[in-house]
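Submission sheet (multi-component)
Chains listed below:
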Amino acid sequence: MPIPHPNRRQFCGALAAAVPGWARAAETLRVLAWPGYADADFVRSFEQKHGSRVEVTLIDSDLDLWTKITANSAQDFDVFAVNTAELQRYIRKGLVVGIAADSIPNLARQRPRFRDLAAIPGIVRNGTVYAIPYTYSEMGLIYDRQRMASAPDSIEALWDERYHGEVIAYNGGTHNFSLAALSLGLKSPFRLDDKDWPRAVDRLIALRRNVTGFYTRPDESVGLFKRRKAALMFANYGKQQLQMCKAAGLDVGYALPREGALAWLDCWVVTRGARNPKLAAAWINHLLEDAPSQALVTRQGLGSTTSAESAGEAGEKLRWLQPVESEEHRNQLWGRILSGDRASKVLAS
Amino acid sequence: MKLGIARKLALLLTLVGALASGLTGLYAYQSSRQLLIESAQDKLLTSTQVLARRIALSRQEITRNLGVLARHPASKSVLQSGDAAQAGQLSTLFCLLMAENPSYFQIRLISASDHGLERVRVDRQGDALLEVKDDELQEKGHYPYVAETLKLQAGEFYLSEIAVNHERGTYAGLDEPALQLATPVTDAGGTAIGVIVVNIDLNGMFSLLAADLPASFRLFLANDKGDILIHPDARRTFGFDKGRRVLIEEEFPPTRDVVEGRVAHVVFDAGEPSGSDVPVVAAFISQLVEIPSHEQRLILGLAQPRAEVVAQAHQLGIAILQIVLGLCLGCLLLAALLARAFTRPINILESAAQGFASRHPSAALPVERQDEIGALARSFQKMQDQITKQLEDLQNNQQELEHMAQHDMLTGLPNRRLFVSRLDKAMAHARRYGGEASVLFIDLDDFKNVNDRCGHDTGDIVLKAIAQRLLTMMREGDTIARIGGDEFVALLGASTSHDQLVAVAEKLLAGIREPIDINGVELKVGASIGISRYPQDGQTVSELLATADNAMYTVKARGHGGFRFSSKVAD
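Outcome: structure written.
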């Protein structure tokens, strides 16, 4: 008499019960994130919860992000974080897809200001929600309190010859041209006219000549600040860098310039190459949980969209990033400036 | 199949031999394999150390070259006065150096003034060397190799971290792994007025340094944080530059101790390194960077496919296997010989025992041997001899007993039992062949008186003497027996006529009456004889004896001896 054996469904059921999440184990969520956005512990808790693997790739500049996403028409990643201004060109190129708001229950945990997605420029287009606000910061100035008697009140400090060779700036074309425009008092830092370019280029060459170095990663900036004994630093990552500097034992202060501080709001978006948009949505939802949101504030010094507004925040003069006239043009020129070209070469077509 | 002791012994010996040689072989194979792996590790470690030494030498050579360039008068005069002719000379010198050193991507003289403007610059572009001039020269003051080198003293060197070079303008080196070495050019007062920078092609330099390593060796390099810089799979290098770090200790966990600075080197046998398909034997060392740099140490490693190391063990294994098989064969042969040597004497003993049982003469026993088998053979022979002797005694005793059972003790004549048996046979013979048989019942007269007068001993002597006489008087084939104290019977088997019977009876009577000399005293004994014949006097033994007995009593009743026939049947 043959020995009775379980049928296939029973067998698979037993196997699946024995190995939780076995059926989904092969699934990998490919995340492209900025430093501090996907800490290992939150990655692990997500992996445990969803039985999938998370592969985190870090980016350190908008150009880096753009290069990675466009390299293979957004097929290499499922979900990434981008600021609302940069987001526009991704939407334009169809590299990101809409997100069903009901797939992210933790949206309800966000402050009303961020919950009203339609009110935030650049997130909703033609009724489709493309991004979920995650974190934000303004780009202030970090200064050495020993070297500068008083907090710098203007971005002009970056060009101040007194600090020649003691200034650290960010290596990013889009933001740096906005910075130059602010310092030149142009109408909009995000819209440069043809006549503005030579002035802006000169301004950035002058900045280059005044700095001791450029950084892309926040940890890199702290190392540079310490090693070069810098006096002043443009903080592209805002208070995230301030927190890291303090943790590194530097006696630093933080100031917002009177011209207004550039500010970014980073959102999570889902690529058109996402293998499993539901898993991508689950990732976004996971990061809006209490612990990851708290960690943004406590560990990174960044603003969280779910926690209460910090004191004084509302009153500050912030210039939220807007889409610029041409990221490509800015990055091209910035590349030349960074390489050390002089104005004539930079502006040569 | 029934296994004889020889086969069993041979099998056992072979098994023991095979097991011993097999185990020895296995042990030899495993330990030599381990030795091979260990020796490969040692060799790898040495190679790695040699390579590290070469890197140090190579770096020294680069710094020497840099030093020469920095001290070259042309460098100073170009920086101080912008002398075009000197710049041309310097450029030629750069070209010559780069032609000699294929791993140099670029050599530059950069001024401290003018925001770090390049003064002389030679780039490698493909196979050609390109002198970069005028507008193409760039300001590099914000790069660490300028900013940090300018802070150094004359004769000191700057070493950049090893990274992918994204600096535009370094043509061949763009987006290639590179490192920069730089040294300040100082004026008479010791103030840095510029820097000499050389851009080194990391892969080019290492492939040159490792050129004479065996082709199967794989080279690994990691920085002090464990980030892989050189790996046979280029996709795994400079992970940090691509946003996803790839660490050497993740691929080879034993290197963690080196990365974390607990040990200076580590050798290991990596069964299945993640990401790499082939198991390897590897050695990793931590090399201190002697120039002040972002990187304190570099981690250098060499790996060799395990299969290649073990391939030698494979050959050795085959040799060992052959030896083991040879030994097994030898064992088999030896076992067969030994088994034969052991079992032959046992077989001789066995056949001796069988022959002994069946009373066949046995082969010569190996009694001359001085070993246990000799002792056993001797014991066996002794036992055989004893048993043979005892059997002979037994047979003798049996014959004696048989004789005693059928003969009279005193006279040695057949007794009644034997007589009856012979009479029976004679009657049977007569019945069958129509012959006759006659019985003469002889009773000594007055023998009681002899006993009473002369004693039983004398009586016995008389009986013996008479028995002897009767015996001598009988024909061959006839029987005389003693059946009672003084009663004898004679059986005459063949047909005997009446006269003949009469003659026999008279002869017997005369013989009995002959005087018997006993110690000088003559004794005379008479006898009465009753004769009965078959078939006329009786059909059975007892009838015949009874009729003879009756005839004898009739004679005895007459009182003076003689004989009488039971019946008067004429011939």
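Remark: The radius of gyration of chain A is 23 Å.
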